[in-house]
Design a protein that fits this description.
16% of the residues lie in helices and 31% in strands. β4 and β5 form a beta hairpin. It is globular, with a radius of gyration of 22 Å.
Length: 425
């Protein structure tokens, strides 16, 4: 077993950024807009007789091994579980479902639209089947008891198909969200808008990209994942106030590909995010996996039509003022309504909602009683120098909305949010 070894990061590991950019082109598509992000409580892949005996490696060397991984071809099965501790939506669940009575007003959005379907990964346990053959061909399938949802990228074509409803979604790579200038004009390999990662590799890259002087990185022994020998890289915050306790990445000893990702909360208990291969093969996948022709009678939605539908939908904007400001891009440099307080693991985004309005209330008639019940189940009333507000909690991301219309959000504790709001007053 490799002994513990550590490395204090100092704003990033030299030489790893370019490697991660290169490696990012090889991962299966990532998808889903919205908070929460990342997910997983995984049953260990295959039983092993004990931890493998591998040569000693430092944390620095292991990070570089991940970044330098040139694996372009793989296939396998991933189990992903997410436990954010969010109360059940109850009757609201159907209201915002595609084609339900709420989210699209009954207009019948496609159940194959990735924007809708990939949000399923934000809760529960799921089995994914993935395949990748370089930056131009990937496939991801979410397996259900009697159905399958598949997302297929082949060249500039993107297809999604829901076998249960016999509906399909079609787009070109550019329509699906590729930023032509982001990768020096090269294809990004992401056929849908980026958001929640769907593989251990994608999850690990997000964490390591954020590593800096506020982070402790160590090698903590070895493991077997999907029958392969792996090193365990452990990443922990050095700061107080974060809801994240640690992130463990099992890294394939031979290829440097992350095989398993586990995020444990600082408060203890089961993993918030835990994803790992149960089977993996680094041979070239069969080319037929990346071809798709809609079965006869399939209802096909084109991306342009879906975009028009999304624009027509008001979504959460009616429920929570300023919700749109919390979407991807709102916190990018130049966004006037958002600023960041602190850094590293304890960073908090301060968002000023349009019109500086607080939460709607049942008494004012702004929200249905069912929606108010859901908000009350999530929230804790708090007061401070800033005034008063409500903290909405998950096991990973918490948000404070003040009564005067400001939102403070981050992977931090309730006390950290109140402190940030007080300091900004």
């Amino acid at each position: 077993m490799a002994p513990n070894d550590s490395a204090e990061t100092n704003g990033g590991t030299r030489g790893t950024a370019a490697g991660r950019r290169k490696a990012a082109r090889y991962i299966v598509p990532v998808a889903v807009a919205g908070v929460a992000a990342a997910t997983i409580g995984l049953v260990p892949a295959l039983a092993s007789s004990g931890d493998p005996d591998l040569p000693k490696i430092s944390a620095q060397e292991l990070i570089e091994k991940i970044a330098a991984s040139d694996t372009e071809q793989l296939s396998g099965t991933v189990k992903i579980s997410t436990d954010l501790g969010i109360p059940s939506l109850g009757g609201l669940a159907g209201s915002f479902a595609p084609g339900g009575a709420g989210g699209d007003g009954g207009k019948g959005g496609s159940s194959a639209d990735p924007q809708e379907r990939m949000t399923e990964l934000a809760s529960g346990t799921h089995t994914l089947r993935i395949a990748a053959d370089g930056p131009d061909r990937q496939r991801l399938s979410i397996l259900d008891n009697a159905s399958e949802y598949s997302l297929i990228h082949n060249g500039d074509q993107v297809w999604a198909y829901d076998s249960k409803s016999d509906q399909a979604y079609h787009a070109t790579e550019k329509q699906a969200g590729e930023d032509a200038g982001r990768d020096a004009g090269k294809k990004s390999g992401h056929p849908v808008p980026e958001g929640v990662p769907t593989t251990p590799k994608a999850l690990a890259e997000q964490v390591l990209k954020a590593a800096g002087p506020t982070t402790s990185v160590t090698v903590d022994g070895t493991a077997q994942v999907a029958g392969r020998d792996a090193y365990k890289l452990v990443v922990k915050p050095r700061q107080s106030g974060s809801t994240i306790g640690s992130v463990t990445v099992a890294v394939d000893a031979e290829s440097g590909v992350p095989l398993k990702f586990t995020l444990l909360p600082a408060a203890g208990g089961k993993a918030v995010v835990d994803a790992g291969f149960t089977e993996v093969d680094f041979a070239k996948p069969d080319a037929s996996l990346f071809t798709f022709t809609p079965p006869k009678g399939t209802e096909v939605t084109e991306a342009d039509d879906a975009k028009a539908q999304h624009k027509a939908d008001k979504g959460l904007g009616d429920l929570i003022p300023g919700a749109d400001a919390a979407q991807p891009g709102a916190g990018e440099p130049g966004a006037k309504n958002t600023k960041v307080i602190g850094e590293g693991w304890s960073a908090i985004a301060e968002i000023t909602t349009p019109g500086a309005t607080g939460l709607p209330s049942k008494a004012s008639g702004d929200v249905p009683a069912e929606a108010q019940q859901f908000l009350d189940a999530l929230g804790d009333k708090v007061t401070g120098k800033f005034g008063s507000g409500t903290v909405f909690k998950t096991r990973l991301v918490n948000a404070l909305m003040t009564d005067d219309g400001k939102v403070y959000v981050g992977a931090v504790t309730k006390d950290a949010l109140v402190k940030a709001a007080n300091s900004a007053s």
